[in-house]
Q: What sequence folds into this?
């Protein structure tokens, strides 16, 4: 695989991410980028963007078993950022459109959603959501300001 770095900032104000040694066994690689000049507020741009992201998850990311893509508003990020791993019992998260909950509660909730989706679609086998939930037994995460969790 070839990875091309388009631009690396030399600015002292550049957004940096510290990677903990513990995360290497769970998700050994991290790629970050900042995309500027994209307006996701007009029309249904955000919805189209998330549909494209989901297609990437389903295809190139192997239903999130190979990689996961997370999208955040860079204006809301507060340095320093830390990429780390913790057991789900030690995490409190706020997932998009949900209330505060522990990672254990989130995993349980997602398992129920995945099972309900499987039943609605009358599938015998598990879905990509089932597989991604199974990956969450040890959560990789990105914390802003070494506090609030951004990625599960």
A:
């Amino acid at each position: 695989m070839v990875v091309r770095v388009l631009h690396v900032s030399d600015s002292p104000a550049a957004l940096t991410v510290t990677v903990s040694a513990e995360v290497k066994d769970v998700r050994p690689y991290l790629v970050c980028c900042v995309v500027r000049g994209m307006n996701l507020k007009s029309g249904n741009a955000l919805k189209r963007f998330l549909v494209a992201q989901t297609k990437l998850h389903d295809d190139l990311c192997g239903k999130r078993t190979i990689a996961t893509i997370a999208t955040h508003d860079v204006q809301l990020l507060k340095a320093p950022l830390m990429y780390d791993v913790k057991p789900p019992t030690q995490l409190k998260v706020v997932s998009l459109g949900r209330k505060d909950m522990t990672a254990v509660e989130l995993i349980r909730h997602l398992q129920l959603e995945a099972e309900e989706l499987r039943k609605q679609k009358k599938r015998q086998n598990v879905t990509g959501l089932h597989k991604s939930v199974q990956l969450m037994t040890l959560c990789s995460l990105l914390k802003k300001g070494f506090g609030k969790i951004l990625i599960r």
